[in-house]
Design a protein that fits this description.
The two termini are about 25 Å apart. By secondary structure, the chain is an alpha/beta fold.
Length: about 400
């Protein structure tokens, strides 16, 4: 099958192709997984300049497009960049119209005018046309919502990383009642499971067992619940340790004040701050348990990365996290914000057979959350679309998660 993957978004601060591909790892990793299944794949990526290259048999085409700018409201961005965006859409449609392909997958469901233009340009092309959801919500403004509906009106299948995100869109009526909506992981990870003892020697982390929390120190990530749960865990398991890795420190003063009032935990909790991505594989492999206490998540890259390394996930029971853990088949779930329940589910699991559980988590990851698993889901979607195309004409699909 000849497949094109299209990601029109990129950050304005990125200046080199290497920075671009590091920041947007998901499209390239998915492309490689599809190639591993025998498909010919072209990755089309927006950037500051036009450029084409081939790496490991993957054709990469950079198309000059307007960049995403931080700190500017989305409607303002669209107003400011209206004319450049019009030119960019023509550039994309000309490029795609010249391609020989069986399937086109677009990362993002909120690029409404762009996708409407592309769908129109490909109207007579017998391709499977899919999108993936990576955030965003149906517009409240009726005019913009009509553009959304037109953009996705031909969709017969959509993939989302969580049922609640799919339901949010479904209830607006933007999609046809016949539209098939599936739940698939938003992203995956290429991290590998490695020796716990060796990883801990490299990272300098210790604990029996060792707990890891990764995210932003802000209210929606709820790090305080992790601290409160760990207070009970540490009382039962005095050799346990908890490490926080974070990108911002909004709640750090509050957490330290709380920790000061609970002096018995002072030696058992460490705030490591920011760790570069290329060092995170070792950090995840140092952990026995991964704590995820968020009150809101789309796909949770950190949870997926931890599971790739075999850390046993313990997460709040958000729909997206419940899906990643297979409803509790791979890890443990607790009611959101309930520190007592979080501690109880961990203590109830016990300290024994951590290596066996780690291997089971890695096996579950490979079967259900790996790029190979995502590629299989996309492949099935494309196959179904092409079969429907041969019977009924053009088939347009949408898959969950924005890159």
């Amino acid at each position: 099958m000849k497949i094109c993957l299209l990601n029109t978004c990129f950050d304005a601060i990125l200046q080199s192709p290497s920075e671009l591909h590091h920041q947007y790892r998901h499209p390239r990793s998915l492309a490689q997984a599809l190639m591993n299944r025998g498909h010919k794949v072209t990755l089309i990526q927006g950037f500051h300049q036009n450029h084409e290259t081939t790496e490991n048999n993957l054709e990469i085409c950079h198309i000059k497009l307007p960049a995403f700018a931080h700190g500017v409201p989305s409607l303002a961005r669209r107003a400011i960049a209206y004319l450049p965006a019009m030119a960019a859409r023509r550039r994309i449609t000309r490029f795609l119209s010249s391609r020989d392909m069986d399937a086109l997958h677009v990362f993002g469901t909120c690029l409404w005018p762009e996708m409407a233009a592309i769908a129109s340009a490909l109207h007579h092309h017998p391709v499977a046309f899919s999108f993936s959801y990576h955030g965003g919500a149906p517009a409240r403004n009726s005019f913009i919502r009509n553009i959304q509906a037109k953009s996705l009106s031909r969709a017969t299948s959509l993939f989302f990383p969580a049922k609640d995100a799919a339901d949010l869109w479904r209830k607006t009526g933007i999609f046809s009642p016949e539209t098939d909506i599936q739940i698939v992981p938003e992203v995956s990870s290429e991290f590998q499971r490695r020796s716990r003892s060796l990883s801990q020697k490299i990272s300098g982390m210790s604990g029996a067992p060792l707990f890891l929390w990764v995210g932003r120190l802000q209210e929606t990530k709820d790090p305080m619940t992790a601290l409160r749960a760990f207070r009970k865990i540490h009382a039962a398991w005095p050799s346990s340790r908890l490490y926080f890795i974070y990108q911002n420190d909004d709640l750090l003063p509050d957490l330290k004040i709380w920790l000061k009032k609970n002096e018995t935990l002072a030696h058992a909790v460490s705030f490591l701050g920011y760790i570069p991505y290329h060092d995170m594989e070792i950090m995840y492999n140092s952990a026995d348990f991964f704590l995820q206490t968020s009150r809101s998540e789309i796909g949770s890259n950190a949870t997926v990365e931890a599971m790739a390394c075999g850390a046993v996930p313990v997460t709040s029971n958000l729909p997206s996290l419940t899906f990643l853990l297979g409803g509790g088949k791979a890890g443990y779930l607790f009611p959101m914000g309930d520190a007592e329940a979080c501690a109880n589910v961990i203590l109830g699991s016990g300290e024994s057979r951590l290596k066996t559980r780690s291997l089971a988590i890695r096996s579950y990851f490979e079967a259900h959350l790996s790029y190979g698993a995502i590629a299989r889901a996309y492949e099935r979607a494309f196959d179904n679309a092409l079969r429907n195309t041969s019977r009924h004409g053009l088939h347009v699909m949408t898959s969950g998660g924005d890159a």
